[in-house]
Structure formats: structure tokens, C-alpha cells
Inverse folding.
């Protein structure tokens, strides 16, 4: 591990969470720089807590570091306090393993997971002292590359990257590193290297294409400007999921990550075709991993990291054709090792007692169903083939198996939404069943994306959407972000998807009803429903997340709330 310089120590003494910037976590990979041919900096354009929750980074970190002569390291966007200190003390952005600045690396790779991180990419390049535009960088600078779902709409960021990876990176990134290694040994210039990289399936070299636009700003044509460059870039796909073994060791974060648990990807792709889902379009076709490989990798991962919770990750885990077999394989050792199982992506239409039984042998995890819309008409519009009877059936199964809370997801701002559609999302179903079910709901706003088929549909005017926001504000308590960051500005510390108890809508019409308020596990006060909106403090994740038994037996119409 590299030594800390005096300037670095000074910066760490002035920031709130120095553990974000020190490295040295269990599971880090260290190598001798003199024996390494290719060095890559894997950069996540967000804070440490967010980046360390990203499964893609863990997969690629493991794959690249299996090569003895390649070294992949990690870098994250510093929080505002550390950024100020780095600029004041002239500390360039560095990787956590070696503490070397990004300019010492052969490849700098960014993962573009969401559009709001674009400005962080430029901020990280500026902190590193690297020219922002690819046209301003020659052979003296590292190769700047990007990947992730946002590359499907590459042009907004094309001027800043030397190459952009379209598709899945397990094999493509290894081919890129191999080409860079050959280029270093044979003395290629940047033009020669880019021409070689352009031959790799899924690699888009923006400087090798001319893009013309229509008068309305849409792209008219993308044409190659070099001979031998493919006219159409096709995305890279891992055809056989078993050809890449899941990671058997993770870097265990020193500062609590948003998702801090063992995680194994069980399948990739989705067969459902919901019109609002970008991932469902990007990660096709549907592919599965074998139960034996999942179980063996998960057991090694839990034993190497010490995690006692295992998440089976995918877009829709319950769509795996051999899910019951997977759970049987996992339960053959998980219960003895005190490892609980979590299925974060469950479809309510194939939720069953058997799944509950096999995933709660050690402890119960949270349960979430995505209803997405409150009326069947609107669910049909977005191709969410779920009926309220199926949602009710899933909730009844959960409550009969001992769950005391279920979280429901709804979306605001869907195309063809009518003025009362969102109100029905909570009130219509819950009014009839609030006494039997205690459920929470989250209702994020839908953000249009070029890859969502619903984006081109006619959208309702801004005023009805604003009225729905007001309804949401009146019936919900804003929840604090699940990020462990505590220095976030007020605008960042609240999320746009308020989490509430769905039964809150039952009493929201009767302004005189008093509402018992549950904070830190005790009934501290009562207040009228009409004054709930003006309460400045929001519930945080450290508060009670399930209702105590005394509250679940309270009189009909009583509301309990949790973060």
C-alpha cells in the first residue's frame, strides 16, 4: 500500500468521511507495478458509497485482476469537502489501491449508469488534470473509455471519450486491454490503436464517425470517416452466462455502502417487455446461470467476505426457470452458515408460499412489489401485465407467512395518465383493504429516456402533473435518501420518490383524525393529519422499519409510519 503524503493527510483531517479516500479495504488487489503491462483505473462518477454498491464494478474488477500482468484499480468522485481540499492542496484525483494519479494509467474507464453523473465525469477529468475533449488528447494521455447503459445514447458524451463500449463488458473490456498491451509493446500511435480497437465488437470510436443532424436536433445519419471502420456498431453480448464465473471475493467497503451485501447475478435480460423499462430493452436476450455455479460462487463469496446476507440479482429473479432448484442448492449450506437470502426482483404474479418459505429460513428481508400504476388501464398502457387481484394475492401470501409490511412502487407522470390516475394508485385499492394490509408505497416520477418506448407517447400537461405532486406532498412524508452521506445539500438530501404507508390515504380525507407518530420505536406524540405536511424532519433509515405488534393490532384506520 502506498504511503500517505503530508498534503494527503492534511486533506483527510479536514473532511467528514476520510474512509472514502484511504483504500485498504479487505479484498483489495495489490500488484507490483514493475511487473504490470496494463494499468486501468475503473472510475465511478459518484461517491464511494454509491460506487461500491455497483455490481458491474465488482465483476469487471475481478475479471481484469485475474490477469497477472493487468492491474485494475478504483476511483470515485470525491464529495464536495474533499474536492475543495484536493483543489486547494493541488492533489490530483488518484486510485485507492496505489494512490497514483489517473495520469499514470494506460486506460481510464468510466461507467455511465445514469445521465445525472455526466457532469461528474468532467469534474473527475478536470481534477486529474486531463484535457476534457478527446480531440485535445494525444499519445501522452491515457485512453479514456466509457461503458454502461447510457452509452446506448452515446452522442451527448461522445466528444469526451476516445472509445465507448456498447453492450456487455466482460469480454469486450478484456479485448480492449489486450489491444492496449499489444500497442504498447509494438509502439503504436493513438490513431493505430483506435483503428485496432474499432474492430472489436461493441466498440464505438466517436472520432471515426461523422454525425449529421436534422433541423429539430435529431440525428439524421452516422457515417464512418475511416476505411475499415464498421458502418454499424453492434452491441457485445455474453451468450453463455456460465462462461464467466461470478466473483468469489468482493472489496468490502470501510464506509457503509448503499447496498452492502453479497450479491450474485443469476440471470441477465428480461422477457416481460414493460414499455417504461430501459434495462429490459438493453440487456436482451434473456440468459440464465446454472444453479450449481450460482450456489458454489455464492458460498465462496460469503465465506471470503464475511457477509451474512446474499442477494440474487437480476431484472426479474422469479423468472429464472430453475429458481426453486437454486434456492434448494443455496439452502443446503446457507442455513448452517447463517446466511439469509434476498430476492430483490420478484414479480408479484409468480410469488408463492414456496418462495417465502425458502428465503426466510434464517431471517426475513424486505418485500417489494412494483404495481407501477393504480389503474388496470394504465398498467395495460405500459405493458405491466399485473392485475390488482395478483397484487392482493401476493400481499395476502406475505402476511400469512409472517410479514408485517409490504412496499409497493408506483410511478407518476406516465403517458396517457388522467388527472385522478395517481390518486387511484393509492386510494382506490387501499380504501377497500386498508384494515387487512399494512403496506408502504413509493411513487417516483417517470423520467423520459431515448431508449424507453413510452417516451414518444403523448404526455400530459405540466399542470396535472404538478397537481399530482401536490397530492403526493399532502399524503406523504418526504423520505431521506438512503445514501449514508450526511453533508448533502437540502436539494440532494430528499428523494423524489416519497415513501409512505399506503394506508395513510385512508385518513388523509378526514383532517381531524389524530395520527400516532412512531419514531425510534416509541409513540412520542400525536398530531392531526392536516399538520403532517408541515413537519420539517423526515424519517431516516435508522428509525423503526416494521410496526410493533401493539401497533398492528390497533383500531381500524390507525396509521403507522416508517422510513
Amino acid at each position: 500500500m502506498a504511503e500517505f503524503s503530508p498534503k494527503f493527510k492534511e486533506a483527510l483531517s479536514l473532511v467528514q468521511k476520510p474512509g472514502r479516500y484511504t483504500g485498504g479495504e479487505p479484498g483489495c488487489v495489490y500488484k507490483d507495478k514493475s511487473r504490470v503491462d496494463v494499468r486501468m483505473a475503473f472510475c465511478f462518477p459518484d461517491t464511494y458509497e454509491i460506487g461500491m454498491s455497483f455490481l458491474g464494478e465488482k465483476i469487471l474488477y475481478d475479471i481484469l485482476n485475474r490477469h497477472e500482468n493487468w492491474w485494475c484499480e478504483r476511483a470515485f468522485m470525491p464529495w464536495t469537502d474533499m474536492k475543495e481540499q484536493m483543489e486547494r492542496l493541488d492533489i490530483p484525483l488518484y486510485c485507492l489501491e496505489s494512490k497514483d494519479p489517473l495520469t499514470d494509467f494506460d486506460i481510464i474507464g468510466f461507467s455511465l449508469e445514469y445521465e445525472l453523473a455526466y457532469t461528474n465525469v468532467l469534474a473527475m477529468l478536470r481534477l486529474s488534470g486531463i484535457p476534457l475533449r478527446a480531440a485535445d488528447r494525444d499519445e501522452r494521455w491515457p485512453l479514456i473509455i466509457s461503458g454502461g447503459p447510457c452509452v446506448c445514447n452515446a452522442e451527448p458524451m461522445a466528444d469526451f471519450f476516445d472509445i465507448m463500449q456498447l453492450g456487455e463488458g466482460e469480454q469486450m473490456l478484456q479485448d480492449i486491454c489486450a489491444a492496449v498491451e499489444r500497442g504498447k509493446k509494438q509502439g503504436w500511435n493513438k490513431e493505430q490503436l483506435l483503428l485496432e480497437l474499432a474492430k472489436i465488437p461493441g466498440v464505438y470510436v466517436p472520432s471515426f464517425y461523422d454525425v449529421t443532424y436534422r433541423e429539430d436536433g435529431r440525428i439524421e445519419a452516422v457515417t464512418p470517416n475511416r476505411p475499415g471502420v464498421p458502418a454499424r456498431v453492434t452491441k457485445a453480448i455474453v451468450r453463455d452466462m456460465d462462461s464467466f464465473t461470478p466473483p468469489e471475493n468482493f472489496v468490502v467497503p470501510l464506509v457503509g455502502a448503499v447496498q452492502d451485501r453479497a450479491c450474485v447475478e443469476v440471470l441477465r435480460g428480461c422477457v416481460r417487455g414493460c414499455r417504461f423499462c430501459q434495462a429490459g430493452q438493453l440487456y436482451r436476450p434473456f440468459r440464465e446461470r446454472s444453479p450449481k455455479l450460482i450456489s458454489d460462487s455464492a458460498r465462496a463469496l460469503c465465506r471470503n467476505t464475511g457477509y451474512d446476507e446474499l442477494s440474487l440479482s437480476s431484472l426479474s429473479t422469479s423468472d429464472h426457470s430453475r429458481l426453486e432448484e437454486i434456492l434448494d442448492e443455496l439452502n443446503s449450506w446457507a442455513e448452517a452458515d447463517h446466511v439469509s437470502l434476498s430476492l430483490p426482483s420478484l414479480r408479484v404474479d409468480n410469488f408463492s408460499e414456496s418462495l417465502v418459505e425458502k428465503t426466510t429460513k434464517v431471517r426475513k428481508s424486505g418485500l417489494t412489489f412494483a404495481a407501477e400504476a393504480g389503474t388496470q388501464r394504465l398498467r395495460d398502457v405500459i405493458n405491466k401485465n399485473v392485475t390488482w387481484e395478483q397484487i392482493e394475492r401476493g400481499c395476502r401470501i406475505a402476511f400469512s407467512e409472517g410479514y408485517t409490511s409490504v412496499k409497493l412502487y408506483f410511478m407518476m407522470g406516465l403517458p396517457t395518465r388522467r388527472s385522478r390516475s395517481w390518486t387511484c394508485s393509492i386510494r382506490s385499492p387501499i380504501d377497500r383493504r386498508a384494515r387487512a394490509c399494512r403496506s408502504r408505497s413509493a411513487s417516483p416520477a417517470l423520467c423520459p429516456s431515448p431508449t424507453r418506448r413510452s417516451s414518444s407517447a403523448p404526455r400530459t400537461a405540466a399542470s396535472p402533473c404538478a397537481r399530482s405532486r401536490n397530492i403526493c406532498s399532502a399524503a406523504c412524508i418526504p423520505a431521506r435518501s438512503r445514501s449514508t452521506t450526511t453533508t448533502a445539500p437540502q436539494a440532494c438530501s430528499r428523494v423524489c420518490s416519497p415513501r409512505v404507508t399506503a394506508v395513510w390515504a385512508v385518513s388523509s380525507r378526514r383532517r381531524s383524525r389524530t395520527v400516532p407518530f412512531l419514531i425510534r420505536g416509541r409513540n412520542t406524540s400525536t398530531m392531526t393529519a392536516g399538520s403532517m405536511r408541515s413537519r420539517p424532519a423526515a424519517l431516516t433509515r435508522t428509525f423503526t422499519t416494521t410496526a410493533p405488534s401493539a401497533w398492528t393490532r390497533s383500531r381500524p384506520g390507525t396509521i403507522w409510519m416508517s422510513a
Observations:
- Residues 427-439, 475-563 have pLDDT under 50 and may be disordered.
- DSSP finds 18 helices and 19 strands in the chain.
